[in-house]
Amino acid sequence: MRTKNILLVEDEEHLLKTIQLNLELENFTVTTAVTGTEAIKKFRTNKFELVILDVMLPEINGFDICEEIRKENKQLPILLLTAKNSSSDRIQGLKLGADDYLTKPFNLEELLLRVHNLLKRNTYQFSILQDELYKFGENEINFITFEIKGVNKKKIEITKREIALLKLLIKRCGQVISREEILDEIWGAEAFTSSRTIDNYILSFRKYFEKMPKEPKHFHSIRGVGYKFTN
Prior knowledge:
Helix content: 40-55%
Radius of gyration: 19 Å
Oligomer: single chain
Number of domains: 2
CATH class of the largest domain: Alpha Beta
Number of helices: 8
CATH superfamily of the largest domain: Response regulator
Shape: elongated
Distance between the termini: 28 Å
Strand order of the largest sheet: 2-1-3-4-5
Number of strands: 12
């Protein structure tokens, strides 16, 4: 079985070597980069299953690299490493498409756990929508007939746009998706659509699928960022 290839972008030599060694001991193939320019070049010339990306880098910072990666690949998991601990930096990273972050200094065991979780989740996401029927908890969604079975146990038919939003959220299970990206993916250039429209859809999903809509377990609103589905 082919080992998974990870792009590790870090300009602190000691930390770079330490993370690389630990990843290789976990049987990952590790490609390294120490500048933003080198990172983008290697991303575009190799196939990776995960990117571990420092924020503070020479030439091009990690936020800009994250944004460039997301323009070309919306599925590739990105784990940000940052020395900054402010909520604004975390929110910025999530808005740009990062899947997770760690603040320096961090525990190597925690880093490896997050790496394994991101890879496992990404593998799962590529397979869940191959079948027409998706189940989570006691809920069911049929992507062909547009029928769902939620907490009331009755089958109801929902709209094409509701199905499209459910597909996007489920395909990116565990990831925070910004309001801007949802509007672009689902509504495109359609006029008069606002983030309030998405709020209303999420409220509907909670009524359909959550036993306690005010304490959701599946459909989450992330203040200042967007939305997240967990199964």
